[in-house]
Every structure is written in C-alpha cells, then in structure tokens.
Amino acid sequence: MKTKIQLPLQTMNLVTGFMVWVLISSLLPFISEDIAIAPEHIAWVTAIPVILGSVLRIPLGFLANLLGARLIFMVSFILLLFPVYYISVADSLIDLLVGGLFLGIGGAIFSVGVTSLPKYYDKSRHGFVNGIYGAGNIGTAITAFAAPVVAANFGWSFTVQLYLVLLGIFILLNFFLGDKKETKVKMPLMKQIKGVYKNEKLWLFCLFYFITFGSFVAFTVYLPNFLVANFGLDKVDAGMRTAGFIAVATFLRPLGGWLADRFHSLILLMYVFGGFTVAALLLSFAPSIGLYTVGSLTIAVAAGVGNGVIFKLVPMYFNKQAGIANGIVSAMGGLGGFFPPLMLSLLYSLTGHYAIGFMALSQIALASLILVIWMYYHDKLAVSNQIMETTPLGMMVTDKKGKIVTVNPAFTKVTGFESDEAAGKSPSILKSGRQSAAFYKQMWESLEKHGYWQGEIWNKRKDGEHYLEWLTINAIKDDAGEIIQYAGVFSDITGNQSEKSM
Is it true that domain 2-387 has CATH number 1.20.1250.20? Predict the structure, then answer.
C-alpha cells in the first residue's frame, strides 16, 4: 500500500514545497505597500529564495538515497516553519532577504523525489514517473494565483501564516504514509561525485536544465511584478497570467517524460531548444501584450517538455549515481532561475528595456540546440564504436583507395596484426596467394555493381599461417552516392573447413 502511494504523496510534497518557495515573489506587490523596497532591490528579494533552493539540492539528493525520502521531506517541512513565520511578521527589507533565503528549502526538495521515485518503477517508465512528480511545479502556480486573492481580502501577513497550517499537515502525512522501508543507497558522497564529475554529459545536462527549469523559475518570479510595472495590469490579473504560464509548463512536464519514454530524448530536446530560440527572439523585440503572451507561452511549452525529457536522460546515463547526479543537475536548474531576474533588472536599469536579456537567452538556447545535435551524433558514433570493439567478428575499414583506416581487437586476434601495424597498409598484407587474379576481379566487379561482396577467402596471418575466413565487404557511400570507404567483416572458419574435409 505504501509503495503505491509514494508517487502521489511525494508529488504533493513537491506541490507544497514549491507553494512555499515562491511566497515572496507572488505577494511582492502587496508586501511592497507596507515595506519600502527600492526598485533595484526587487530583483534580489525575488531571487534570493532561489539560492538555497538550488545549492541544497545536491546534499538533499544524496541524503534521499542514504536516508530515504520520508525523513528528508519531514525534516525539510519542519525547518520551513521558521522562515514562513518570520516572513509573516517581517517589517524590513532585511527580514525579507533573510526569511526568503531559507524559503529555498521548499525548492530544494525537488531532488528528493527524482532520486526516490525511480526505485519503485521499471526503467521504461522513469520518464513519465519523474514527469508526474515534476508536475508538482504547479505549487508555484497555486501560490501565484491564490495568494494574491487571499491577500487582497485578508492581508499578506495572514496569507503567509496560512502556509504554517499546510506545512503541519504534510509533516503528519509523511510521518504516517511515508515509506520507512525505501531501498537505501549507501555509496559515499565523494565516491559518487568522482563517478560523475568527469563525465561531460553531466555538465551538458546541467546546461540544458539551467535553461529549461531556470527559465521556468525566472518567469515565475519575474512575471508578477513585470506585468504590473510594464503593462499596467491589475495585481490579481498579473497573478492569474503568471499562474497560466506555470500551469502550461507544469502540465506539459509529464508529457515530456512520456514522450521521452517512447521517442529519442535528444531529438525531442532539439525541438525544445528550437522553440526557446524563436520565442526568446520574439520577446527581445519588446512586443505588445498579445505577442508577449505568445512568446511567454512558447517558453512555457518548451520549458515543460524539456524538463520532463531531461529527467528521463539523467537516470539513463547515471544509474548508479542517480542521487548526486539528480542533485547537481537540478541545482543548476535552480541557479538558472536565480541569475536571469538579476540580469534583466541590471540590463533594464542600463538600457531602459529587456531586449538584450531575451536576445541573450535566444543565443544560449541556439548554442544548446547545436550541442544537442552534437551529442546525438556523438552517441551514435559511440554505439558504433562499442559494437566494433566488442564484436567477436574481425572488422577492417579502408579508404576508397584501399588503405586500412582502422581495425578492431577481433581482427588482431585472428590475424596477429596490431592496429598500428595494419593502419595505412593495404589489405594485401593478408594475401595468401591461393586466389587467382580472376577471383579478385570478380570481387571488385561485385562491389562496384552491387555495393557488397560476400564469400570464402584464404588469407595469411602475421606468422605466415594460412586460414580460411568468411568475408563480407560493404561499400560505404556518402549522401551523393560516392564511395568513401570499404568495411570488411570476417570470421575464421578454418576449423569448420577441416571438419568438412574429415
């Protein structure tokens, strides 16, 4: 029973954590009426909660593996009681900055669920499961929509204190319904870090999540105040539009995970970063509210799908170090939400508009698109190379003039020639002299006419011993149909021939 309830329970935990995480940014138009906040400090007030919410994801991901999600969620919610109450009685900018910093715990718990939940499901469902859990982002939309409505009627201080009740409820739910018997992974932290930090794919995933989740967080904290200040919208209207952005990005996250379970994840990311590039370019031209809405919703779609896809990829590449890898990648995503509001605020103060900031996002997204394409083809080459290295069949690749380019370990095992001895030489180093000139003429005619040749051939090992092999030669052509290489695959069948002779 407790196994089945972990996905809904942990998803609701994330909803609660994210509701708390964005309390200040959602209520800032109300808070600023009672607490004087200079325009240059607004970005800091909204961005500060992101700091701890990002940095803590690394240790929380590790601790979730070590101690289990139940304990980490309970302790996190208990710790959140203190900054929430402190903010409810705040009367200065310093109070908001200090309280906001520790609200970051609400965002940090993200790495707990993505580390814990895959333990309960088959790998073929990890994308969808992590997508469902990631839909807990909707907590930011709930606060962005509901908190201003409550604050308009009962005041922002009372609204903040309501979250103390919510936290108390989820402390109890985790105590009674959390899984005490969750599988623990007790690999030392430094061993896990050493196992991942040299892998370039980890840092590529960090960049990708920095953009997808970072843009989600950045727009969440930036939109409420921006829509009021730039377009003159009512505070509640701005909150509802922000909630709409969050809802689109959140509900598309499970779709992204589901798609990644069924299609190639890297191809999906190509579409994601293509969407980011176009949308950010549109926003950089400072459009009307209508076009701004189109650009923002395109960002929401790309961010939602991208977030789901990336957390299908992370456990695929880092199965044994899932806790620390999830923590590092999700931390970079959180930091992706910290810097953009500050940069946008700085650029606005210098230039009077946000165009340069959005143009920078479009160029970073374009660079990411190029990196995803490189990663896709690099993986295909890696698979081909792994097949060549591990197959028991001998393999030899020559250029179109017949000079050997590369051979595999099985080639060396059969022929005795090492890779450096064969490279640059002609395949004639294997020639036994048993075949006539007519044999080789027929071979080349078949290659030119059909693109392949297959048959038995006597060759010679390095030590001079003759052996019979079954050889298949394929002509490799470019897109224009021109032959660029030949690939030969063979197996030693001398023993089989001897048995036939007997």
Answer: yes
